[in-house]
Structure prediction request, 209 residues.
Amino acid sequence: MSTEPLVQVEPDYGNEFVPRPFSLTPDELGELPVTVAKDPPPVRAWVRYPAVAERERGVALAWTQRAVYVEWEAQGIHRVWVWASAVERAADAEARAAVVAESPRAGAISDLGTERLVELVNGELALIGAEFVPGMSEPTGPFSSVVFGTIDGHFVHLDFLTEPATDLCAVLLVSKELEDLPAQSAAPTFEKAIQAYPWAVAFDALEPT
Prediction:
C-alpha cells in the first residue's frame, strides 16, 4: 500500500478561521512501504501548526520507516503525517515524563530508553566477560531504535524494535563483519527479550577460536 490514499483530514469549521496543522508532503513521505495498524496503538505526537507545535494525544493509524499517520480528536477528527521521530508510544512517553520528574540524568535517555536497554544488554554480556560500548543512537522508525557501538573492538549495532500489532519487543545484534549472528529474540518486554537473546553464541561468532 502507498501513502497516497492516507490524506490529511480536518473537521469542518465552516466560516470560522482555525489554524490547521501541517502534514508531510508526498515528496517528504517518499514511496516507502506502509504498515496499516489493525489495532492502532496510542501515541503522543508533536504536530506542527503555523508558528507553534503542539503535542497531541492520539493513535497511529499507519506508518512507514520515516513517518507516522496520526489521528487525534480536537473539536473533531484530525489526521496528518508527521516525522517518525516526533512520535512516541503513549506508555513510553508517560514513563519518560516520570523519569524526567525524578532524575537529573533523564536527559541522557534517548529514543525507546536505549540507555537503560544498553545497561540490560551489558548485564547479560558481563556474564560472559564481554561489554557493549555504545556510540550513537537514533530512531529507525516510529517504534524502533538502533544503537551503534563496539564489542571487544568489533563494530556492531543493537536494534531495539517494537511491533504495535502484537505488543512484542525484540532485540537483535548486527555486525557488518558477519551475517550469521543469531536472529532476533522477541518477548512481551525488552528485559525478557534481552535475557532470551543468545549473547554467548553471538560473542563466540564475533571471536572465533
About this structure: The first strand starts at residue 35 and ends at 36. The chain has five helices and eleven strands. The CA atoms of residues 32 and 194 lie 30 Å apart.
